[in-house]
Amino acid sequence: MREYLYMALVAAVVTFLLVPLVRRFAIRIGAMPEVRDRDVHTTPTPRLGGLAMYGGLVAALLTTHELPHTGPVLAASNTVVALIVAGGIITFTGFLDDWWGMDPFIKMGGQIAAAGVLVYNGMRLTYIPLPRDWGPPLFLDDLSSAVITILVIVVIINAVNFVDGLDGLASGIVCISAMATWAYSIRLDQVLEDNRINVTAAVMAILIGVCLGFLPHNFHPARIFMGDTGAMLLGLVLGSSLITVTSAADPELIVDVNKFGALIPLLIPLSVLVLPLIDLVTAVVRRTSRGMSPFAPDRGHLHHLLMDLGHSHRRSVLILYAWTFLFAFGLTGMSVLGVPVIFFPLIIVLAVGVLILMAAPRWRSKGSHHAPRGPRWRRRVSPEEDDGGPPTGPMPPIRAESTALR
Asked: Which UniProt keywords apply (predicted)?
């Protein structure tokens, strides 16, 4: 566990120290566009925070070879090289988009290229494990494996990018998701091989550190935004966990272990992104139903709706943190305790309860219409002023009776 803490600490410290340098660089090159109608911030804020995140990611990955337990595990795969190269591609793509702007289809090309690097280095879904009652695992041929892997990673990249609309929102949600995935991977590896060292846990520890190192600069009021540079990088690294946590064990063993986790291993990494995925799907439906491009920006994201209900900036972010925590650790706990997958709808019911609580500010605003106004003050008029004569001297003000709003 100390090695995971070490990797997270290196990623956090390097990211934290790089942010001020990146901020000055972003201001110098003009990567701080004017405020748009759909934005919630009121002053131009530099972007490119993802450059600092990439620096923290690379620094932590390069130090893993010195670790006695985690180093050999990562050295046995191409994970370090794959994430550095793929992360570089997605960071450069995001950098150009944040600086100059980029056509959505060109940006998607960069996302596919980055995901393709992971596939080329062996990070791919080779099978889809199923619960024991559903039959044997669904094995994939090379083409299907490559296509599905790239598709899943691109979806997760855009899901994180879609939810990045409030200060500290995307980095906090990804951090919570990484924590849940880390816990699940540790438990899975411990049950299968009586071991707690695995690739997924190592990568998630680094991702947690990157997010924690960036959050102090990004929480409201943010001094820098991660931009597409950081949002797409976080999505790429988090998406890679779905691949590594699934391919880390024999599929037959995964099926046997379903007694402690009737949820399929793919469900955990995907469900921890339930908020970004819901936001992504609803945004596409909303925009296409209006005759707009699915990539056209608007002001209908979940965080916009929360603020329209009357929540403050920070409260909206904390509510969305709670949503992510509920789904991520709820499913992780269900898997570890062996709760059947049929109980998953209970989490949906709990989420609906959270949504009802979100409407509380609106109820309070309705009740405020009947609240009395505070007392009003007026100056007493002297008899001379009443008769039109000159005032004989200043008169002290007195308080009039309070009047209620009618």
From this structure: Cell membrane, Magnesium, Membrane, Metal-binding, Transferase, Transmembrane, Transmembrane helix
